[in-house]
Amino acid sequence: MPGTVHVIGAGLAGLAAAVRLATRGVAVVLHEAAPQAGGRCRSYFDKQLNAVIDNGNHLVLSGNTTMREFTRTIGSEHTLTGPDRAEFAFVDLESDERWTVRLSEGRLPWWIFDKHARVPGTKWSDYLSLAPLLRAGPDATMTDAMRCPPMLYKRLIHPLFLAVLNADPAEGSAQMAGAVIRETLVPGGKACHPLIASEGLDVTFVTPALAYLEAKGARVMMQHRVRELHFAADGSRVEAIDFGDGPEPLAVDDAVVLAVPPNVAASLVPSLTTPDEYRAIVNAHYQVPPPPGCPPMIGVVNGVSDWIFAFDGRLSVTISGADHLLDESRESLALRIWEEVARACKIPSTPMPVWQLVREKRATFAATPAQDKRRPGAKTRWQNLVLAGDWTATGLPATIEGALRSGNRAADLV
Questions:
Q1: Could you tell me how far CA 332 lies from the centroid of its own chain?
Q2: With 90 as the cut, is the pLDDT of residue 198 above it?
Q3: How far is residue 310 from each of residues 184, 237, 282, 341, measured CA to CA in Å?
Q4: Fewer Cβ close by (within 10 Å): the C or N end of the chain?
Q5: Which domain holds residue 177?
Q6: 271 and 387, same structural domain?
Q7: Residue 388 pLDDT more than 90?
Q8: What is the pLDDT of residue 72?
């Protein structure tokens, strides 16, 4: 067993590593540069809305096994809510058609043979076009690897994988898309029940993790930014960490889990190659109660919006791959999105409710084949330094599941 493990970064990857280590009885010190933990998966009080909101709307699925294990360990699994089957509502704002995709629970995809369960205007044979993604090579984009019929692509594949990859399928990695399909659609609907942190990301993933760590005797240090890692002259290990007051030596059996954003990791670790292209996400929040019967989430086709989420007293929208919206004025964009929300949810568009718009310019690394090749593994050439983060080589895109899995992997390597 190692001595003290310093986990640098309290995003989900760092929290996962710290929780796994603390569960094993390892002494853990968790360092976070920000005033609060959670990284990009955090909640905060918004004065405009007079409510606690998440910095982004994150969807997880029942088949995300690492996520389920993590929330079970920290005692928050009950805060994830959603339907008891794999149902996804959609609306086409151009034609005003509405439909619900209903996946069959087992491994056999009976749903594609049911015209009331699959996407309108598609045939069962259309869905076979997804199969090549399961054996795609590292250089292929989704549209390179598959020949998807237009109706299926526009009404399911594009909105689904734009959200999963935070990249348009035309540039998105086919290999990463295939990994997601292998863990969700292949096992069947039982792995695809949508789950939402209905009380907020903090309540599900962050606060209970910190409470768990405290109960296990871990030290948590907020606003404690690492300035430099000092490496031994023989190149074998990290020998000290500088948090701004000079190098703090590590014991021979101490270790470091570096769970910071890729650009920060690259500045701390010599010659480390990391993803260096990013994609934006826009989230809009409207202070209006969802109408009766509103689905918990609605996929939007032929709109600027991608997905609408219904929360208690609030409707929220997520737009992935949103770099093209970064320069539009807040007021103009918020109004455009609201008009789509009103149509999709069949509620009056006037007056426009109190709103908030959050643009995250570097929300995730670009999930392209080229950027995927820049993702490092967890192991480094230093025996007591490992990496964690959704940007490391998890095989998955930048997701909650990928972040947690990377944290577990790092903890297992210490």
A1: 27
A2: no
A3: 23, 49, 17, 11
A4: N
A5: 87-192
A6: yes
A7: yes
A8: 98
Query: Is the per-residue pLDDT at 281 higher than 90?
Result: yes
Does this model's pTM top 0.90? My answer is yes
Q: Are residues 158 and 248 in the same domain?
A: no
Percent pLDDT > 70 in the chain is 100
CATH number for the domain harbouring residue 354: 3.90.660.10
Indicate the pLDDT class of residue 56, thresholds 50, 70 and 90.
Answer: confident
76 within domain boundaries: no
Residue 277's Cβ-side half-sphere holds a number of Cα atoms within 13 Å equal to 15
Number of domains in the chain: 3
